[in-house]
Design goal:
Blueprint: E1 2-6, E2 14-20, E3 27-36, H1 39-46, E4 55-56, E5 61-68, E6 80-83, H2 93-96, E7 121-123, E8 128-131, E9 141-145, E10 149-151, H3 158-178, E11 186-190, H4 194-205, E12 210-214, H5 218-226, E13 231-233, H6 236-246, E14 252-257, H7 267-271, E15 274-282, H8 297-302, E16 306-309, H9 317-329, E17 339-343, H10 348-357, E18 362-366
Helix pairs in contact: 3-4
The structure holds zinc ion (2 copies).
One zinc ion (ZN) binds near residues 91, 92 and 104.
Amino acid sequence: MKAAVLHTANQPLTIEDVGLTKPGPREVLLRTAFAGLCHSDDHNVTGDFPAALPVVGGHEGAGIVMAVGEGVDRVAVGDSVMLLPLPTCGKCRYCADGRTYICDANLDVMTGARADGSFAFTTHDGRQLGAYGQLGTFSEYTLVQQIRVLRYERDIPPQVAAVTSCGVITGYGSAVRAAGIRDGDTVVVVGTGGVGMSAVMGAAIAGAANIVAVDPVAFKREQALKLGATHTAASVEEAQPLVSELTRNRMADSAIITVGVLHGELIGPVSRLVGKGGNVVVTSVAPVTENTVALPLVEFAMSAKNLIGVVMGLTRPLADIDRIYALYRAGRLPLDELVTRTYKLDDINTGYEDMHRGVNLRGVIAF
Ligand SMILES: [Zn+2]
Ligand SMILES: [Zn+2]
């Protein structure tokens, strides 16, 4: 079977024949249907947020359960399932109090190893190969822990389930959960790829009066207006007078940062887009070595603003994905529009080049 493998940072993914072991206890073997080209995999390629190498890439996706190991009780053979980039063990303190996005079981996801420390994939000459995010969706088949999959109903198209597994819940949750948008709010979404566009849709569902989409790419600004944005700006600087005018100088209630690669100097200007008591939601991944933020501290404290770190949109996938699909079925969350282009696994590097060129909201690999 074929998979896209990253051997060395800053090199293209290579398509190669790989081997896969059988499911062990509480593991599930999947045939991948669709895999999303999430930016986080590219953060691994660039080394901004590195995982152990070599690794089969991909952590966003949906597939069919082909076999299950001993003790699997969450899914059965034949189920359609989506992958969960972060696990929900259901047993730890954080799962117990509803903050499943910081489940204790997610500590070792970047090792690419199975729960027992071994590796599911092997190269054609028998060397060990990790699975990115312990998922490895850029492969025709993959092996994952049962706490990393969620069964979904078949009326949801598999490519929609694939992009929902990471991009949609992250963006939607950033708006509806992390930013806590209320009716009549003004919201700014900075960066409108797949995650940012899901935040735009979430802001619309949550009842925001003004939704300002900020993106340098004209195509993305046009799409944002179709998906719920009320206004657009090409940059944070350009958004400043617009938000000021829209809010009669009160400024926005929240700003959600969903740019491709975050740098600390963006936080200060974005914090000035929100007014008193406003929320700055940090969803984007920054280079892991970067630890400096420029923030006007007196203004930030005196205006009682909030800086909120966000993983998976602070969602609880086992409950929130059901809500997202209810909105999709009702025609209120046009998730089909997020999937701009479909690629073959062989063309995955073209897909990532297209992401960098800004021509996709989300590209997906169809297996
Ligand atoms: Zn992702
Ligand atoms: Zn847990």
